[in-house]
Amino acid sequence: MVQPTAEGWQVAVIEPQKDNSAEVSSKSGSQKLQKLLLALPKGLIDKGEKPEQTALREVLEETGIEAFLVTKLGDTKYVYVRGWGDRERVFKIVSFYLLRYVSGEIDKIAEEMRIEVKRALWIPLEGAHRKVAYSGEKEMIRRAQDYLKAHPELAKGGKQRL
What we know:
162 residues, alpha+beta, Nucleoside Triphosphate Pyrophosphohydrolase, two-stranded antiparallel sheet, 18% helix, globular
């Protein structure tokens, strides 16, 4: 999800509500060091929902921002091992869309979403690929940059769908 500013494009990211800390021991005792983990908003498709609708809903729920769909950026595919229960390997496909800001206030989300999202924030799109944690999301940020460079009219506003 992006918005134009006088300084350039910004992208909405979230800091997931997870314990991303590592314990470090030293002569003065143990300390927890926080590692900042930033990610793009995403979530599961609800029954009867199309992936594009899921993207719009998840951005609103996780960031507080209403947006409109510009284009699909692509899919990422990966396997992870569940950290709970049976520790089963799970194959996952995540579709990413370029969405443009319409309204709302970043991080103004429902209290029940705080179990998933620690905070939502705007960061400059330029260099954002170095700040998000996951390689597939880094690639989607690069694709968004390329798309926006090829379509400068998106900076002017309006709900044009290209």
